[in-house]
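Section 5.1 Outputs to date
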Amino acid sequence: MRCPICQDRGIILRGQTAVRCVCAKQRALANRFSEAHLSPLMRSHTFANFDFRYYSRHHCDPVKGRSYYETARLAYQAAQEMVEHIKAGRHTDGLLITGQVGSGKTFLACCIANALLDAGKEVLF
């Protein structure tokens, strides 16, 4: 399908200036998502829909000595801080996410990947 704005050239001339057409920006974003190897389901895992209701405020992790809710909140906060560091171009040592099966590790990793992809960063999952 041809872009009605640029006729698939990817650029629009505005006087003496050439600017990227919105279709080229959308194609680049789609390519980044494709190259990241995130499934459509993983693409839906974002910080905005991270649900803390899955984590008990009353039951404590015997190893960490804090509630599962508090552990999830701290991991969520660390993940968001790492994303902000990367978006700002600051160095980060990365983030190690550990936990039991079903504790939200993959979901949180997808939140990070999606936030970085949305910010125009390249991600490989």
